[in-house]
Design goal:
The protein is α+β, with helices and mostly antiparallel strands. The chain has 3 helices and 2 strands, in the order αβααβ. The termini are far apart.
Amino acid sequence: MNDRIKLLVLLAVMVLWTSTPALAEPDLVFVHMTDVHLCDEEFKNSYYGAARDIDPVATLDQAVEDIMVIKPDFVVNTGDLVSNADK
């Protein structure tokens, strides 16, 4: 059997194995959040300019509420948690 056929057979077995409910792992649900950018009022006004009605804390609070409805197994937060870390 040449290498290409071996690879195709391996892929077919993997597809069958992962699509068989009795053999497949249970679903894992996670949420990926990124670039939350929490900031103080001064930075918010200078950064968002005309869109000063944006409230990063309220937006995060709403996101957390929405995530709690999903009931994920875990949450990953990547990127910038704060906007102005120097302060």
